[in-house]
Amino acid sequence: MNENSLWLERWENREIGFNQDEANPFMVQHFESLNLAEGSRVLVPLCGKTIDISWLLAQGYAVVGIELSETAVIELFEELNVVPSVSKVGEHTLYSTENLSIYVGDIFKITSEMIGKIDAIYDRAALVALPTELRVAYASHLRKMTNNAPQLLLCFEYDQSLMNRSPFSVDEDEVHSHYKEHYELKLLTREEIVGGFKGKLPACDVVWLLR
């Protein structure tokens, strides 16, 4: 079973404990580091139905999301209490309102021509959701798709040998390997997770600014 099938199966089985009830506190604390003007277009890759999108919209940004699960996208608009227009863009389905556009389909088949100019990327759960071999391709594709738009990148760091499943550990060396040739990297915070990851595994939340 490939990664796309696994992700869709998790939504079908409602294995979606990764969704939060409140906006991510690290995003709220550090998003201003991107220094964006009101109305800037923010890409949220592998967005699911994250409540972070509601926060971004409330701050006056336009949001572009990419998500494999159509169920997640339908639920996102229901929870925002807005009715989107639905259209086809190539082999993808586009759900959109005035300031929110979500493409349903494979992120690797999304092009810069499809999504238009992106001013910044908010990567909370995308890079860490992918296995090692896909992270290399993803980072490269994200850069090309957005013309190296600046990023706020949230990662986890822990002993991968103790839990070999998503969300994966992405340490400092790996972040540098993906992005150092294309961005100035700034470590904004590295904070130990109280009680450990999933309540048992020693781990840290790590936030990067890529400019």
Please give a structural write-up.
By secondary structure, the protein is α/β, with parallel strands linked by helices. The chain has one domain (3-11, 24-210): Vaccinia Virus protein VP39 (Rossmann fold), CATH 3.40.50. Helices cover 29% and strands 26% of the residues. It is built from seven helices and nine strands. It has a nine-stranded mixed β-sheet with strand order 3-4-5-2-1-6-7-9-8. The longest helix is centred in the middle third of the chain and has 15 residues, at 132-146. It is globular. The termini are far apart. The model has no long low-confidence stretch (mean pLDDT 92).
In short:
The chain has 211 residues and is of the alpha/beta class. The chain has helices at residues 3-12, 25-30, 52-58, 70-80, 112-115, 132-146, 172-179; strands at residues 41-45, 62-67, 85-89, 92-96, 100-104, 120-123, 151-158, 185-192, 203-210. The chain has one domain (3-11, 24-210): 3-Layer(aba) Sandwich (Rossmann fold).
Descriptive tags:
29% helix, 211 residues, globular, nine-stranded mixed β-sheet, alpha/beta, 9 strands, Rossmann fold
Topology:
Blueprint: H1 3-12, H2 25-30, E1 41-45, H3 52-58, E2 62-67, H4 70-80, E3 85-89, E4 92-96, E5 100-104, H5 112-115, E6 120-123, H6 132-146, E7 151-158, H7 172-179, E8 185-192, E9 203-210
Parallel strand pairs: 1-2, 1-6, 2-5, 6-7
Antiparallel strand pairs: 3-4, 4-5, 7-9, 8-9
Strand content: 25-35%
* N- and C-termini, Cα separation: 36 Å
Write the CATH architecture name. Answer: 3-Layer(aba) Sandwich
Helix-strand pattern, N to C?
Answer: HHEHEHEEEHEHEHEE
Number of helices: 7
Number of beta strands: 9
Protein structure class: alpha/beta
Name the average pLDDT: 92
- Count up the domains: 1
Based on CA atoms alone, the radius of gyration comes out at: 16 Å
Name of the CATH class: Alpha Beta
- Here the CATH topology equals Rossmann fold
